[in-house]
Amino acid sequence: MRGTSVLKNINRQFLIAARPDGLLKESDFDYVETSIPEPGDGQVLVQVQMVAVEPALRGTMVEDTNNPANLQIGDVMGALAAGEVVESNNPDVPIGTRVQGLFGFADYVVSHPKAFLFSVIPDGVPMEAALYIFDTSGLTAYLGMAHVGKPQPGENVLVSGAAGAVGSIAVQLAKQAGANVVGIAGSAEKCDWLVNDLGADGAINYKLGDIDAQITALMPGGIDVYFDNVGGEILNAALGQIRLGSRLAMCGRISEYENTGPAYEPSNSANIIKFCRHMERLMLFDHQDKFPAWREAMTTMIDDGSLQYRVDMLDGFENLPRGLIRLYTGENIGKQLISIT
């Protein structure tokens, strides 16, 4: 059965037109218009209303046979998104249900309740909050802190990319664990937000230079937990100040995504062997057993008001590629979302 809220006769999509080479460009995407798909047995048709973008999406566009999320030329650009079920062949997800999942850059998508990361948005949770907290950003931050970093009261936790979607949640989770938390960001506005709104004990503006000295000033005893979102020179500076028993949650390397030269090799990498107790690259596919605990933890924090979030909203389907590109220029604060209805 098809609901009455289907508003368009076409399905707009952005496809991958080229593998990114250096800076991500709008010409790396093709805009097309197709017919609205029909759901099969057990499936639902979702009208997408809001799309979330994150830095890791660029990695799905490059040629990488080891990445299970790798996309091909001509594929719809993938992304977490949220919308409303407008046609349903599944009694568990009736028309009108608000859902989120890997719906991509499209107006309409056919999905199934058992699809990876498909979920019903809880009543009372705003769609933008669901895409911030109940998407891969919240999941990555939770896994990095709860299962890799495991910060203890009084420990020093350093988070790079702290004003982004993942980093801002990681900062708050570490603070709730009783740690001394310092975030790294790229502007005075972002640093103020980290301290004044998210409760970080300190903030480092990496654009002021001398990251080593700034870390030492705020964490003279060294780093117990480092949550890395950026890689490059900031990672190297952090590795230079980790102490015995430290834990490293390796989330991303946004500073290197658009590097066309040799990969950056941190000169302080030997400290991993000397001092690090545990280091893990955060791969969501490896932790599906922890999804229920993550959703329960995030729901509790939303209900009691202990989790703050900030969205950076763009309007218009045409701005989907631009929204993704903004992540690599540092224009966004918090979660970058695009409203497409």
Q: How does this structure look, described?
A:
This protein is α/β, with parallel strands linked by helices and 341 residues long. The protein folds into two domains: 141 residues, Medium-chain alcohol dehydrogenases, catalytic domain (Quinone Oxidoreductase, Chain A, domain 1, Alpha-Beta Complex); 149 residues, 3-Layer(aba) Sandwich (Rossmann fold), CATH 3.40.50. Helices cover 27% and strands 25% of the residues. The strands form three sheets. Strands 3, 4, 5, 6, 7, 14 and 15 form a seven-stranded mixed beta sheet that branches. Strands 10-9-8-11-12-13 form a six-stranded parallel beta sheet, sandwiched between helices. Strands 1-2 form a two-stranded antiparallel sheet. Strand 9, helix 5 and strand 10 form a beta-alpha-beta unit. Helix 3 crosses helix 4 and helix 3 crosses helix 9.
Mind summarizing the main beta sheet? 7 strands, mixed
| CATH homologous superfamily identity of the largest domain | NAD(P)-binding Rossmann-like Domain
CATH structural class of the largest domain:
Alpha Beta
Number of domains in the coordinates? Answer: 2
- Uncertain segments: none
What percentage of residues falls in helices of 4 or more residues?
Answer: 25-40%
Mean pLDDT: 90
Structural class: alpha/beta
User: Which overall shape is indicated by the principal axes computed on the Cα atoms?
Assistant: globular
Treating each run of at least 4 consecutive H or I residues as one helix, how many helices? Answer: 10
The CATH architecture of the largest domain can be given as 3-Layer(aba) Sandwich
Q: Name the helix and strand elements from N-terminus to C-terminus, one letter apiece.
A: EEEHEEEEHHEHEHEHEHEHEHEHE
Q: Alpha-carbon distance between the termini? A: 22 Å
Strand content: 15-25%
Radius of gyration equals 20 Å
Q: How is the CATH topology of the largest domain named?
A: Rossmann fold
Tally of extended strands? 15
